[in-house]
Each structure stands twice: as structure tokens, then as C-alpha cells.
Write a structure and sequence with these properties.
Structural class: alpha+beta
Largest sheet: 6 strands, antiparallel
Strand content: 25-35%
Order of helices and strands: HEEEEEEHHHH
Number of strands: 6
Helix content: 40-55%
Number of helices: 5
Strand order of the largest sheet: 1-2-3-4-5-6
Distance between the termini: 26 Å
Length: 249
Amino acid sequence: AIIAAGTFVLGAYIIPPANVKRIDYTNTYVRNRRVDYGDNIMMQVAPGQIAYMSRYDNTTKTGYRFSLEEFKDKKLVSRLTALSIKWDTLYQWQVRDYMIRDFKGDREFITKGNSLDTVIPFEPRDFLISRNDQETLTSPQLQEYISRQKERGVANIKAFEIEYEKRYAMCAAAFILTIIGMSLSSKKVKGGMGMNIGLGLVLSFSYILFMTVTSSFAISGLTSPMIAMWIPNVLYTIIAIILYFKAAR
């Protein structure tokens, strides 16, 4: 229980903020896996609101050929277009060379301008997903991010769902592997404990390998992330039960 609790606290709250610096260092000095550009970006930023950018450059925080359409009862009621859009902080954006068309019945109202500060409920990390980004979020942040992306219709979040389920599966693994270790160590064999220790190490490393294999099932869409992460726990629970009752005899 102590190991499981420590694993959960570390994996869910303490390690993710530290991973921000580690991943940033890796991307800067070792191997850059950061995604700084995106093309033909379309997503639902809020119920009934669809945003589109032909291109986004994260180095300058600027998107080009932007549009934001709002629908009510499947009817277009407003459309904002801009030559460029610049991200400030959180949901703060600045649109440049913009035109807003509001449709009210059979009438259309047009507003034009050079620059407008506005709030649009999305940010670059919602559509620029880099490798290992899921490791930088705490579990509550992961849950919020996954829920928000599902509402927006974003499909490329398997890695985030796997990471979220993996953190809970590893806590259960602490109990399962402890029972296996206890069962093996309680059984005395001729020639010492070498064989039992070796078997325990094989089972521990095979568990990690098996979890890596099953995670690929979720990535390919064969299973859900939750099922993929809990398959090893179910299998090794059966192994733990068998070893426990053998040790009891």
C-alpha cells in the first residue's frame, strides 16, 4: 500500500511538472521532437463554434487565414475571418485584418477592422501535440485535457488516455507484484533462493514488456486505452493467485 500510494503521488503530481524541464532540455539539446507547425487545422472550440487555420507557426505564435464560424440549430449565425491571428496567453487572441459577418434573418451585418483582441476558447497545445506532452500533465490536468479534446472532436489523444490509465494500473501492479514476490520468497527450494529470485525478476520485467505491447493495441485502435492498460494486471493477478495458493501448500 505504501509503494502503491507513493507511485500514485509521484506519477500523478510530482514527476509531471519536473518532466517539463526534462523534455524541454531534450528538445533543445538532444533530439527535437517538438511540433511547432500545423497545417489545415480545424476543430470545434466550443459547442456550435468551428475554428479553422490554414497554417499555424508556434515560433511566432501566429496563425494564417483564420475563420471562426458559429452555428445555432444547424444554421450559420456568425462568421469571423482574418488574414492572421496571434496567440497571447491562455484563450486571449488578437485577430488582424478581420471581417465579422452576422446573419440575422434575411439581413447581414458586416464589421471590418485592422486589429481586435478577443477570447477564443482554445490554445496552441490543443492542436499542436508533441511526443511526450502527456508526461508533462498531472492526472487532473490529463483528465481535463482528455475531456476537453473529446468534446472538440479531436481524435489524436490516444497517448494521453494511455498515460492516464497507466498511472492507475501501475498502482494496482504494486499489489500484484508484491504478492508474486511474497509467494516466491516463502517457498524454500534446494540450492537456495536463486531460482525464485530469477523467476521473480523475469515476471517483473515481463510485466513491463507486456504493458508496452498492450499499449500498442490502444494506439492502433484494437482496444480502448483502459482495457489495454489493465490486460497485464488481469493476467498477472491470475499468476499471483496461483503462486499464492502453491506457496500456502
